[in-house]
Request: fold
Amino acid sequence: MVDLETFRQETRGWLEQNCPESMRTRMVLGEDIAGGRKRTSTNPDAYVWLQRMAEKGWTAPTWPKAYGGGGLRKDEFLVLLDELQIIKARPPLVGMGISMIGPTLLEYGTDAQKLRHLPAIVRGDLAWCQGYSEPGAGSDLASLQTRAEDQGDYYLVNGSKIWTSGALHADWIFCLVRTDTQAPKHEGISFLLFSMDSPGV
Reply:
């Protein structure tokens, strides 16, 4: 196991060699990368930075290496954050993949779901959006009406979602739907993942 001071020196050296100069400045509108194929950064260096960090697993430093993450311990992660701040490095990847659905899958996902989605999130291959709010159910998610009917090998989803930030550029959505209409309104709600290219979306 590498001691923390050695890890710090190695991290500092790697960042100095691999972080482009333009990625050591304040974020500029349109230059960030949230993943996916539908939205592009105006700065080519952003892709260089993303690729290099993803190859190290440092777009998701504490995620297990088996899913593309860096596998860092908490103390190593804090050192990495410190060194990134010292050079004023921008985040290589932002968005709901890294911040929301990824951690959720790590905690609750099946092995198959983790293997399918997490490496793609780490690489920035996919952009995600959140399907929670509805015309009659904003912050009161217990009132959501979108239904998902089990059709055997797929779910048939009917309903509407609004205020879905990033939907225009998203490849996938994580969506709250009602799967049991007979249950009390705070129950019978399921969490579905599906492609934004699905018919009817």
